[in-house]
Design brief:
Length: about 230
């Protein structure tokens, strides 16, 4: 076991933080994380050395802590599950700290699929929430819909560069321009899942054009058809 832990703390509610992750945080000395993620675990941070970061200063914070960590235990919490939509950061942590321990959490994609009653084993789960190019992921989205799968999708907010912004409105426009009948594609959009601010939009993909949603949102394109064991 290493002394650097990357842990998933769930979509937002403290109720979705697993007991294992709680114990790891309680036992650690240093925590580095984003403001929203820290809010989920704030009751566990008493007496810790806490570094609140942004995309702009995260590298500086990691490097600073790496120089003084020694035998102290470091936790880097991630909203949702560490293993989904966070690979770029996890890879950087490995480059800086060497071997790390990854502890999974509950992803917003799991919660969204459950609320929409769309089984993940008959769906494609796609994240656009990355900094690298997403053209291949856009093609993956098209193929998934054409193949009849439901899609659980995390959009990409990029307000500082509109050309890279690929949220619900842009996704709806993209699909329509590529020949999809978006007036017949059912969709759910969830914001702030598991928190007191949680909202749900239900309609069709065409309804999303021109609508704005939070950066903390997940959409589900629902093509699920009931197929129970009684039919076999």
């Amino acid at each position: 076991m290493t002394n650097v832990f990357a842990v998933g703390v769930g979509p937002g509610s403290p109720k979705y933080v697993t007991e294992l992750v709680k114990q790891i945080i309680l036992d650690c000395d240093v925590v580095i994380g984003y403001k929203y993620t820290m809010q989920t675990i704030e009751s566990l941070l008493k007496g810790k050395e806490v570094h609140e970061i942004t995309m702009k200063n995260q590298e500086e914070a990691y490097q600073k802590v790496a120089k003084t960590l020694g035998q102290k235990k470091l936790v880097v919490p991630f909203t949702g599950d560490v293993n989904f939509s966070e690979s770029e950061v996890v890879d950087r942590l490995i480059e800086i700290f060497g071997k790390i321990t990854i502890i999974p959490g509950i992803s917003a994609t799991q919660v969204a699929a459950s609320k929409a009653q769309v089984p993940l084993d008959r769906s494609k789960v796609i994240t656009m929430h990355i900094t690298t190019p997403i053209e291949e992921k856009k093609l993956e989205l098209q193929k998934a819909i054409l193949d009849g799968f439901s899609v659980v999708l995390v959009p990409r907010p990029w307000p500082r560069d509109p050309t890279k912004h690929f949220m619900q409105s842009e996704i709806a426009h993209y699909l329509r321009k590529n020949g999809f009948d978006t007036k017949r594609l059912r969709v759910h959009v969830y914001e702030f899942l598991t928190t007191d601010k949680e909202t749900e939009f239900v309609g069709f993909v065409s309804d999303l054009e021109g609508k704005e949603f939070s950066d903390l949102s997940v959409m589900v394109i629902n093509q699920h058809k009931l197929e129970s064991y009684i039919n076999f």
